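User:
Can I borrow your eye for a moment on a structure tokenisation matter? Would you put together a sequence-and-structure record for a protein of your own picking? Please set it down just below, with no commentary around it:
AI:
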Amino acid sequence: MSTKEQLIADIENLLNSYDNIHKTQINPTLLEFMDEETLISIIDLLLNQKEDSKESDMEWLETFKKHES
């Protein structure tokens, strides 16, 4: 598997790691025109989005725990 193919697979895996979201399949030919730097940038954006989502979930849980006490 080439580096670009692996990056595309990584993007697909990240998109499919969200709960309650329909499985995403990316047609690799749609991303073939992108260079490795662009694909890595997409991965970085997805990871940041996932991290931000996790942080807001944790904040919500902490608020909920405070109201429970």
Summary: The two ends are 53 Å apart (CA to CA).
